[in-house]
Amino acid sequence: MVDPGIPNNRLVNVDVANFERAVGRAMRDLEHIVVVLLEDVTRTNGATTWRMLRAIDEQAFGDLGFQSRHDGPVRAVFVRVEEYRLTAIDYDTQVNWSCDDTGLPAVYLIARRFFGKPRK
Question: How many domains does the chain have?
Fold first, then answer.
């Protein structure tokens, strides 16, 4: 959900506690946005595909309100669907909800909770 590739030592002159709180606020905000989008999409679509998750990811992170409420460095810590290692697969395939939690996109994890899918 959060990119571990951004080490704290690259955050020069940053209050780590404030940064972590900012990431937490952004996560709660992102969850709200993604759930609203999932509610809209699931009314019309049956299967959850990687293409659908990618579209939700793009809409959520592209939301102007989200962008204005959270600084770029805070938004940058979240793993995006497009960056995820398994998205080289066919985007039209159904999402495999049993992936382990290591390095998963934020939208995937939010959607998995939304749909009540069990973790691996």
Answer: 1
